[in-house]
Amino acid sequence: MNFCSDCGNATSLKIPIGDNRERSVCENCDTIHYQNPKIIAGCVPTFDNKVLLCRRAIEPRLGFWTLPAGFMENNETCLEAALRESEEEAHASIENPIFYGIFDLPHINQVYIFYQGDVIDGSYHPGIESLEVKLFTENDIPWKFLAFPVVELMLRHHFKNIKNKNSDIYTGTINKSWKK
Length: 180
Ligand code: ZN
Hints:
Layout: E1 11-14, E2 23-26, E3 32-33, E4 38-47, E5 50-56, E6 65-66, E7 69-71, H1 78-90, E8 94-105, E9 110-119, E10 130-136, H2 149-164, E11 170-173
Parallel strand pairs: 4-9, 8-11
Antiparallel strand pairs: 1-2, 2-3, 4-5, 4-7, 5-6, 5-10, 8-9
This protein binds zinc ion.
Residues 4, 6-7, 9, 26, 28-29, 31 line the site of zinc ion.
């Protein structure tokens, strides 16, 4: 941030008194502009032992497959955000959602939170941010064309759960150096 969102004056990086790291501080009104990680909420929508994926119509990773997920809005819960993203990206309504996974991505200041739930009536069609949406069995998943590491990890965990007939929660960290 170069300018104060409160008064418009220039900001500079300083360690405020009592703090231990640099913040954008306004030279004029002394407002400290804290920047913190963003939360992305998403779903693993399932139907008939298949998972619903969306092919991205937007950058980044246009044309690659992803789980419905997006930035949480103010005044909503994580679960509400995850269900909203499924509606927006896949026009899929989800029932019986359960908490399913949390991923820290410290190198890009993001936290992903996933829920798993059933697609009501197996009904879906592409939202404006999706080129197509489709149900995949484990063998049909386009593993080489997934948009983000978090999608691959969540899917592999899901199919492991199916195999073991449980619904374990995934917790993990994805770093810059993450490789398949
Ligand atoms: Zn200011």
